Amino acid sequence: MRVGNITPYFFVALSFLMLTGCQQTEISQKPNILILCVDDLRPELKSFGADYISSPNIDALAAKGVAFQRHFVNAPSCGPSRYTLLTGQYGPAGNNALFSRAQNMKDPAAKVDQSMPEWFKEQGYTTVSVGKVSHHPGGRGGKDWNDSTKIEMPKAWDRHLMPVAEWEHPRGAMHGLAHGEMRVQSGDMDVFQSEEGGDDIYPDGAITDEAVKQLRELTTHDDKPFFLAVGIIKPHLPFGAPKSYLDRYDGVGLPKVEHPQKPEGKTTWHDSGEFMKYNRWGKDPNKDIDFADEVRYHYAACVSYADTQVGKVLAELKRSGADKNTIVVLWGDHGWHLGEHAIWGKHSLFEESLRSPLIVHYPGMEHTGAKTDAVVETLDIFPTLCDLAGITTPGHAQGVSLKNILTAPETLGHSAIAYTNNASTIRTSTHRMTLHEDGFAELYNHATAEKETENVAEQHPELVEELTHSLQARLQ
């Protein structure tokens, strides 16, 4: 039988194409994941209240998503903080946390839970990392961080990439300055620098170019959903960025540094060793206010430089059309003191070391541009992404999904904890309590003007005991 010039077989073929097309549409509707990790980024962004900062691209993402104003990392150092992000578990406090996990994976008798990228790979995702996602940019060990026999996260990535351009190797790029300058002796490398040129004169230019290339490949030639993590190095020390970014701050006033004095009594204060070992031309920012301002301007320039790199990746995501089906997370791996408590760096258990930006956007979200004051922690990102992607959250993920806060930003959060090798801390909506390994406690009331400058532990022993129990229970 014919209908006009069309045979019945046409309808059979058409029905088959429609059916398979619907199936492919259902498969492709599993959302992509894009995680943007920015190193040493405190919430020094306009969307987080720093009005003097130029951060238009991250602010635009915040205007499309939800900005968590009180997100806290689980360790004030790159390695252990990224361990928590990538495993969804509390872990060791040292920078080798992920390498130690990798070593454990070699033991057949050891049970090592799947990492977040490994879990998403099992759910059908193509997993790619570019730049500094785990502690070592590119995710390899060895002298120059490029030994392919020493993998920081085995089984995690389909591709883990670190373009080094003229910096020779990932270790060189990690602390690189303009035009291939690498750190040999810290004291011979300037703590900040501003050179004429484009974005590619510093290492993040190459990282961003590779990220855009990978995104184009994933959205053009890969029919699976992607899990892409991009790690921007700046504003990590040394503070190097093209001069055009420093020029943005000509004539711009800096806000007052809150509580710049060294704290009295026992705290997690330190002498800023990471910062102080660089060439500072004999100057100390705790004694020289003009030099302190120079440091802060160069940090701001690095934030703006990192912001531009984020913008390039997001522009490619939009150009590809994949933005309509991609969950985007921007995450700072910890905070950074810019003179508060007379510290220049991270590694303390004060607010400035532990608070970092977290922005989440997903297609179809209702509360775009919302800001939430819910207390949350990095540990929550793994279950949140599972929840938003519609896949099972593994039982070993220790955090909680933030989807209820994303859908109702006024929802309350939960306490956040963090740790170093010799102390741990718990942050509630009103207090921070830090417990040293010898049992000494610091208690700070964030509802007062003094905040983390006045230890009120002796006045509130019951609260110290309550928070100590909560903290220890979480870390068991």
Give a structural overview.
- InterPro entries: Alkaline_phosphatase_core_sf (IPR017850), IDS (IPR035874), Sulfatase_CS (IPR024607), Sulfatase_N (IPR000917).
- The structure is a single chain.
- The chain has 476 residues and is α/β, with parallel strands linked by helices.
- The protein folds into two domains: 29-413, Alkaline Phosphatase, subunit A, CATH 3.40.720.10; 422-476, no CATH class.
- It has helices at residues 8-28, 56-64, 78-87, 97-105, 116-122, 170-174, 203-221, 243-247, 273-276, 289-320, 351-354, 381-389, 403-407, 461-474, and strands at residues 32-38, 66-72, 126-131, 140-141, 147-151, 159-161, 192-195, 226-232, 239-242, 326-332, 337-338, 344-345, 358-361, 370-377, 416-419, 423-427, 431-436, 441-445.
- The strands form five sheets. An eight-stranded mixed beta sheet has the order 6-3-8-1-10-13-2-14, with helices on both faces.
- Residues 1-27 have low confidence and may be disordered.
